[in-house]
Write a structure and sequence with these properties.
globular; 2 domains; Rossmann fold; 8 helices; 20% helix; Alpha-Beta Plaits; 16 strands; alpha/beta; four-stranded antiparallel β-sheet
């Protein structure tokens, strides 16, 4: 018997009569070719890309009122918060039947990782894909985990954590000139300098981001703990989601840009919110990093048991072609009861109930939610891309959707009509 306690990252966000926002920042897009005006209440300007800017302001009302009257401004967005939510909780009991494929891995807790098993056992056929490998991993893939951070000292993660080779640790200097000081393993947009610059301390103090990271790429065959899905991966830790879950759009945009500029080909987003206020800056950023850097964004569908084609959540309900949205399945094969769905806005399903992975302090536990299903697909994508690095983001997405293990009941739930399958994907590409 299994008892699930569900990740509440997306649950019931309509807690406010008016949605909360930062009083310090505005997002502004100028019309093509127009210059941002100089106003005394604008204390700092960060240029994102193109005509999109983040403004640090001393009086948000004055700046918004002034810019709204100017014909040269395309749009203004407040920096809305995601609303405080409880993050993923551990499951009380987990499944431990031994169908682990020990001949493929020596990680001792593999038997708890039901999501790696064959499609007949409702998994993603990862063990089968390694057992029957026809092509080795060819390229290390950087995957950015935009979350609560990462325990970069964890015994099962320290060897796969991304390291910025252009930066000298702890010298207080921006050695590589990328605008960040001592960003050794990523950035922390929640802790900033007096100048408003994100710092480089990405240590996870919650556990959610560490759990997500382990699903994607915990070190395989090290005789410790678990096996990640991807065999040749570097996990970039980006702390943007507070322990309370109320991430801001400006932080999300900065995180996406940092990840893509620093080589991440896959970004995992196990977060979201049920309101957007008509803002398109995050969506435009997803398009930008796809076109400029070849980066795909993989996002959790959410845990409200609702159709997000009609009742939208963000970023999952954005319609970017390089956005890959994931629903959650159980070890019994069906859609998890908490999982959002939608044949337009949800692309694929993957195991998300009672997924066993790393947490802070060299520990492991099982968690549930689309927060866990998203990194399953991110790991699957990283392994496929590592073996076939010539694939572009949309081509990679289509490959994974076209090679799902079809489930009849998913036909009206997700666009692909099935659960991700690593063996099917690599065998199809090997033909």
């Amino acid at each position: 018997m299994k008892i699930l306690s569900i990740s509440l990252l997306f649950l019931s966000l309509n807690l406010f009569a008016s949605n909360p926002h930062s009083s310090e920042y505005l997002i502004v897009k100028m019309k093509k070719g127009e210059m941002l005006p100089s106003l005394s209440s604008i204390t700092k300007v960060d240029h994102y890309f193109g005509d999109l800017y983040k403004l640090r302001v001393s009086n948000i009302k004055d700046v918004e009122d002034t810019l709204t009257k100017l014909d040269i401004v395309e749009y203004i967005e407040k920096d809305y918060l995601g609303a405080k939510n409880k993050l993923a909780q551990k499951d009380i009991l987990i499944e431990t039947n031994d169908k682990s494929g020990k001949e493929s891995f020596n990680d001792p807790d593999l038997s708890r990782q039901w999501h790696l098993r064959s499609s007949s056992d409702k998994g993603i056929s990862a063990i089968d894909a390694y057992r029957n490998r026809r092509r080795e991993s060819r390229e290390k893939i950087i995957v950015a985990v935009v979350d609560t951070g990462i325990d970069y000292n964890h015994e099962d993660l320290r060897d796969v954590v991304w390291t910025n080779e252009g930066e000298i640790p702890n010298n207080g200097i921006d050695d590589d000139g990328n605008g960040y000081i001592d960003d050794i393993h990523g950035i922390n947009t929640l802790k900033r300098t007096k100048q408003g610059v994100a710092t480089g301390e990405v240590m996870d103090t919650h556990g959610h981001g560490t759990h997500v990271s382990g699903i994607i790429g915990a070190t395989q065959n090290n005789g410790i703990g678990i096996a990640g899905i991807a065999s040749n991966v570097a996990i970039m830790g980006i702390r943007t989601v507070p322990n309370s879950g109320d991430e801001k759009d400006t932080d999300v945009i900065e995180s996406f840009l940092y990840a893509a500029k620093n080589g991440a080909k896959i970004i995992n987003c196990s977060f979201g919110k049920s309101h957007n206020e008509g803002g398109m800056a995050v969506s435009e950023t997803i398009d930008h990093i796809y076109k400029e850097y070849g980066t795909i964004v993989i996002a959790a569908a959410g845990n409200d048991s609702k159709n997000i084609d009609n009742r939208k959540v963000y970023p999952a309900s954005f319609e970017n072609e390089s956005l890959f949205v994931v629903a959650s399945t159980t070890s019994y094969g069906g859609l998890s009861y908490f999982s959002n769905y939608g044949t337009k806005n949800v692309d694929i399903a993957a195991p998300g109930s009672s997924v066993y992975s790393t947490v802070i302090g060299n520990r492991y536990q099982s968690m549930s939610g689309t927060s866990m299903a998203s990194p399953v697909v991110a790991g699957l994508a990283a392994e496929v891309l590592s073996r076939f690095p010539e694939l572009g983001p949309v081509e990679l997405k289509q490959t994974l959707m076209n090679t799902v293990n079809k489930v009849r009941s998913f036909k009206r739930k997700v666009s692909s009509g099935g659960r991700g399958d690593l063996l099917n994907a690599v065998n199809t590409l090997n033909l």
